[in-house]
Amino acid sequence: MITFPTFDDIKIQWSWGIMSPEFLATYVQIGTITAEQYKQLAGKDYVAPTTA
Fold first, then answer.
1. pTM score, two decimals?
2. Where are the domains of the chain?
3. Is 29 exposed, middle or buried (0-12, 13-18, 19+ CB in 10 A)?
4. InterPro entries attached here (predicted)?
């Protein structure tokens, strides 16, 4: 199975400044990138959303 975008694609888009940390977090939520990859790009720990 091919996943798009890949981490490298997301990394490029992040470097262009076209993505917010909140949008980047959605890729963790759907399993496209890991929490560690999120931290590598965003420079901060991923915090999973909580449900009330």
1. 0.86
2. 7-42
3. exposed
4. XkdX (IPR010022)
